[in-house]
Fold:
Amino acid sequence: MNITVWNENRHEQSNPKVREVYPEGIHGAIAGFLKEAGFGVRTATLDEPEHGLTDDVLSLTDVLIWWGHQAHDDVHDDVVAKVQQRVLDGMGLIVLHSGHFSKIFRTLMGTSCDLKWREADEKERMWVVNPSHPIVDGIGETIELDKEEMYGEHFDIPVPDELVFVSWFEGGEVFRSGCTYRRGLGKVFYFRPGHETYPTYHHSEIQSVITNAVRWAEPTTRPQPIRGNAKPLETIAEKE
Amino acid sequence: MNITVWNENRHEQSNPKVREVYPEGIHGAIAGFLKEAGFGVRTATLDEPEHGLTDDVLSLTDVLIWWGHQAHDDVHDDVVAKVQQRVLDGMGLIVLHSGHFSKIFRTLMGTSCDLKWREADEKERMWVVNPSHPIVDGIGETIELDKEEMYGEHFDIPVPDELVFVSWFEGGEVFRSGCTYRRGLGKVFYFRPGHETYPTYHHSEIQSVITNAVRWAEPTTRPQPIRGNAKPLETIAEKE
Amino acid sequence: MNITVWNENRHEQSNPKVREVYPEGIHGAIAGFLKEAGFGVRTATLDEPEHGLTDDVLSLTDVLIWWGHQAHDDVHDDVVAKVQQRVLDGMGLIVLHSGHFSKIFRTLMGTSCDLKWREADEKERMWVVNPSHPIVDGIGETIELDKEEMYGEHFDIPVPDELVFVSWFEGGEVFRSGCTYRRGLGKVFYFRPGHETYPTYHHSEIQSVITNAVRWAEPTTRPQPIRGNAKPLETIAEKE
Amino acid sequence: MNITVWNENRHEQSNPKVREVYPEGIHGAIAGFLKEAGFGVRTATLDEPEHGLTDDVLSLTDVLIWWGHQAHDDVHDDVVAKVQQRVLDGMGLIVLHSGHFSKIFRTLMGTSCDLKWREADEKERMWVVNPSHPIVDGIGETIELDKEEMYGEHFDIPVPDELVFVSWFEGGEVFRSGCTYRRGLGKVFYFRPGHETYPTYHHSEIQSVITNAVRWAEPTTRPQPIRGNAKPLETIAEKE
Structure:
């Protein structure tokens, strides 16, 4: 499987604290543990030509991981349209944290994807509510993060096809933190944690979830569906 | 409840056969039986200013019904954006037949909404697969339509929140014909039948389903969700 | 609509604290606000003959509410079987709090319905995650209960058809607190709060949710489905 | 992975036509192609002691396949209870065809699992409605079976977690033919085709679906959930 890890990669340029936590960028950290898991991995970032998501890259990508935050509007609409088409054609998509507001996620969801948020160094405890799902293989009953940004309900998303995690936050909120969707032939997983100033993507269970999600999102091998005008498969009676 | 029935209203102008079946337009036929059911009903059509969907009309509409076919591209993007926002704010939306390819439905679904189709005067038998749903109140185990256009799988929609009808077609296909979705605070129902040359909207059970769907799609009365930056509801411990 | 409120009614006999909170029993409190809402309401309790759920009572009941806790095993299996059959035939069922372990709920779910619990006078904050659902009509973004028993995940239930509430607990857990299911022609709603020593059923928003749930669970008016051996509706070709 | 294929194995004894189609029994046919796919496979049948499902066999089984028809009532309730417990503990379960009426399937569903049926040598065309699901990997848009027993809606099952196939029948019915459920830690797949007098389990695409389903139903590797009385994870404030 070929994975492309896409990152906005702007905080890493402007904020030394982020650079300290992720010296090779958030994309570098994620690519690192996915390579160790045996996947073919490339990275792509916003400021590359075509945001690094050329037709060639997209056509070779089985699963795309997306992290963005402050520059969602800088992503070109035609790249968004191409990514959407690739998802509909079967590519898996894993949207992380602040990617909830990315053009690609909003386009695939059809809703605002808005939520509550707060940066307060608060504790998050993610509870597994779908224990037989392959995305939680090897994961205990909770994942605890000592400090994370809070995201709170109501999260304006379509009803998830599958709800995998629900987060408890120290400040009093809950959040649907792990949500799967199917769009066209592609599988989509939204996974909440990963504020840029915290070492969340160095956390081994977070890495396991993302690795499991990549496997889950692998495209099926099937002929593309046939659509449009269709000849009958059975005889249709003459009617008056 | 205030209902707005939106119709493209182009076939009625150009095709005498359609005009014969629907002398007051598809919108007129639908508005007729909804008025009899006691709703406040207005109509709106593509060629009116702002397609008849001004801010005033939209803000007064509890449930919008949508029929379009050959002129989806003539619907202005800013009207589509306003309708989407009203759905997210709570307005119900009932999308009929060829409206599967409308901009508003594709925007809310995030998929191509493509399908198989055939015009062959063929029999459709819609089977109720969700017998306790209020949308099928008073409906028997099937609705039979002697002649309809065929729509066949794979229908490129997100997994419905609720699947209400599955159609059997004489020519050998099946179709998920009645599908509910929630988007934001709004409820959406897609209902398959209604090719312009057939008297489908004069069929009493089809009328019952649409009437039931209008009731089901009624907005809830609740304060709008609070989103954005949020103060904690509980004390967050100082951390080192 | 005719509602029957079933209560085990044992804590009320043995525990003065419960009797103080619910002088007319939990069933009396629930019956009270449902009568005010205009429903026809009767009550039934464990120690009545046939637990108060005779064939006549069941056949006249549109929606049954169920509260039980310490004496689940005292409910006769044949009464459970009759209640199950009535649900499959269309009766609505609202299972409250410790009713998660009742025979009828476990029978309808097919799982253990086990969970974590703790009695510690702790705060529960129920978050609405399905804002367009009729069950939360008129309800704000949360319902706060100063003191309740904690129920925590993993709650061993089938994936809910609709998830309406998620609870945050002071002690660190979350819980899927409002869950809908369809079984046969009947609608089922599980609603978490209501420990016997707290005045939860005197809380106006809790009363609103239960009242809304009763309306939501109203049976549809339809002929019973036809099952068993079936004659073909279309001609089947002779095959060699 | 270790698979156990359970078969009632009565038609094979009494009906020469069935024995001709399945000389090694339905269980033998299914075990055959699963062995070729590389799984560890054993078989078990009704007339063995404990129906071949001893504690040892069950504890070693990752996925159980179930075919039964005329002798559902001969399956001992304690064996059913053990199989249910193993599913809740994580074992996958694939229920085939007339197994819809088996005690184990009805127990896990909580409904009657009744349906329409007809034996008329009629054509079934199964349409894939969930094209990204791993269970349809390698499968075309339909699977055609020249002659099968008809099963028709309304099928009295809970709403499937995922609907994978919908069948078209020559005689005019449709059916939800491939349905997934989660129960406890276990995954359940109901797959419709397989009347005993037809060579359905010799059909290569039917074999592919069952093989895919076995892989999909593989248990996750996780600690068993902790339930019962639970100590708080956070400090609970004293209240007056």
